[in-house]
């Protein structure tokens, strides 16, 4: 139905006032939104408590949908395995993928050993696993890449802890609620991970692109040594991420770096492991990810 | 999908001396928008923004289907709720939903006679502007993303809008089911 062009509701003062206040409140909402945006841009943690509380409140429903999602994913993979060449093929492919990652890890460990023997005297503590948690959701409709875990302070999770899946690094804890936690995925634009090439230790940074790939920026400028298919592992600089966690494979070489594909698709990872921050003291502030306070790396 | 279900329920039940429940009639739009704000996060763990912003789509669909049912200031509380789950800088939904609400009211006054195509065009423009502005605000917050990430999402959201509008229409029929006995 078409509304009347003239919206004055007769001479009723009450109706006029309520219309006026409706419009005033509409404009006020926009102004309040702008103020909130400015506050959260200046102080990104200002509303994280509120968001953690909301994630806690929604976590039962999110857990149920995570179960359903995983069951649905399993059904799809069973049917597709049957239709292709049987479930054994799918299983073998998964084992092969894991074996490839293990191989890279072994390469990295060999490289690590060689270097450590050179640098005798540097001691390292074993980074323990804090807990295993299920990923219950993510911001799939926004440009930020933030996922939700179904465990929080109750399982000993603290902000800044690295999160990994069997296939590789997933991200780090952003904020923690009572029974839920938010994870900044490595593919988010704000995430910056110090990495090195698994084969020979060429150092670089991996920054998220927001679309499931990583932008690799070399630390030493010059001739770009990266090749397509190179495996990248975390270097442990900055003390947050444990060294030699597989992270990505180079997909496309650019002039001053590369675009790399992440090894552990968070959508496939049912359960993830939350680990302690690796080093006792964060030594090089330049290498630390920008938003992680060094005190969290030290508070272990 | 639900049309048949609700239509059968309506035809079988007596309709004389019945009126819609005021709680449902008022509450269903708010509840559906809030539910739609929460749903995209649960559907999949995505490594790129692939799902349309269902909450915003439902909000626009309600405002276009029933102008005036959601007050102009509805963008404030509903946007605040959406902000709890969207991962954007807090307040971006409050700002953008309030602006959209004001804009839709303006369009409604200027174009009182509309058909589905014009509504879809208006919604498409609004969705594209919403997603671009959201990406800009997230960029200011440090989460840089390229425009190539946004293009697929805009297309998906545009195509999803008629489906969401259809679902909102179903919810509207559910909202106005005469279930209260009038004496």
From TrEMBL, chain A:
Keywords linked to the UniProt accession: Cell shape, Coiled coil, Membrane, Transmembrane, Transmembrane helix
Keyword Transmembrane helix carried by entry: yes
Ranges annotated as spanning the membrane: 20-42
Segments forming a coiled coil: 89-126
Keyword Cell membrane carried by entry: no
Rod shape-determining protein MreC beta-barrel core domain mapped to chain residues: 141-257
BP GO annotations: regulation of cell shape
GO CC annotation: plasma membrane
Pfam family, one: MreC
Family: Belongs to the MreC family.
Protein name, as recorded: Cell shape-determining protein MreC
Origin species: Novosphingobium colocasiae
Automatic annotation (TrEMBL), chain B:
Keyword annotations from UniProtKB, A to Z: Membrane, Transmembrane, Transmembrane helix
Domain of life: Bacteria
Chain ranges passing through the membrane: 42-65, 116-138, 150-169
Protein name, as recorded: Rod shape-determining protein MreD
Taxonomic lineage from the root: Bacteria, Pseudomonadati, Pseudomonadota, Alphaproteobacteria, Sphingomonadales
């Amino acid at each position: 139905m078409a509304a009347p062009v003239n919206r004055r509701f007769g001479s009723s003062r009450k109706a006029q006032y309520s219309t006026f206040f409706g419009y005033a409140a509409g404009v006020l909402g926009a102004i309040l939104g702008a103020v909130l945006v400015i506050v959260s841009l200046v102080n990104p943690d200002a509303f994280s408590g509120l968001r953690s509380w909301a994630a806690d409140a929604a976590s039962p429903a999110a857990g149920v949908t995570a179960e359903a999602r995983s069951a649905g994913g399993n059904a799809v993979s069973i049917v597709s395995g049957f239709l292709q060449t049987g479930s054994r093929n799918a299983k073998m492919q998964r084992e092969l993928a894991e074996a490839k990652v293990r191989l890279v890890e072994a390469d990295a460990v060999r490289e690590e050993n060689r270097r450590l023997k050179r640098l005798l005297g540097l001691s390292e503590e074993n980074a323990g696993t804090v807990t295993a948690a299920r990923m219950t959701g993510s911001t799939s409709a926004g440009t930020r890449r933030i996922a939700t875990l179904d465990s929080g302070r109750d399982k000993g999770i603290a902000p800044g802890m690295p999160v990994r899946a069997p296939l590789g690094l997933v991200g780090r804890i952003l904020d923690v609620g009572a029974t839920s936690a938010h994870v900044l995925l490595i593919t988010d634009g704000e995430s910056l991970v110090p990495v090195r090439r698994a084969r020979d230790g060429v150092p670089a940074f991996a920054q998220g692109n927001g679309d499931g790939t990583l932008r690799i920026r070399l630390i030493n400028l010059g001739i770009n040594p990266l090749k397509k298919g190179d495996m990248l592992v975390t270097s442990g600089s900055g003390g947050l991420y444990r060294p030699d966690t597989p992270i990505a494979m180079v997909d496309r070489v650019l002039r001053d770096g590369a675009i790399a594909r992440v090894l552990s698709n968070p959508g496939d990872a049912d359960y993830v492991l939350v680990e302690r921050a690796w080093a006792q003291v964060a030594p090089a502030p330049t290498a630390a990810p920008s938003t992680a306070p060094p005190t969290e790396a030290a508070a272990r | 999908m639900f049309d048949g279900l609700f239509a059968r329920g309506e035809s079988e039940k007596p309709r004389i001396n019945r009126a819609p429940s005021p709680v449902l009639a008022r509450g269903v739009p708010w509840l559906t928008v809030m539910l739609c704000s929460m749903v995209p996060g649960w559907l999949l763990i995505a490594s790129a923004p692939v799902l349309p912003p269902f909450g915003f789509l439902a909000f626009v669909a309600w405002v276009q289907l029933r102008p005036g049912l959601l007050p102009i200031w509805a963008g404030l509380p509903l946007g605040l709720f959406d902000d709890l789950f969207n991962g954007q800088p807090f307040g971006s939904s409050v700002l953008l939903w309030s602006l959209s609400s004001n804009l839709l009211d303006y369009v409604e006054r200027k174009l009182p006679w509309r058909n589905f195509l014009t509504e879809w065009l208006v919604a498409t423009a609004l969705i594209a502007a919403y997603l671009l502005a959201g990406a800009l605000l997230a960029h200011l917050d440090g989460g840089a993303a390229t425009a190539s990430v946004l293009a697929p999402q805009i297309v998906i959201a545009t195509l999803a809008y008629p489906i969401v509008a259809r679902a909102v229409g179903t919810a509207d029929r559910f909202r106005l089911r005469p279930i209260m006995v009038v004496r």
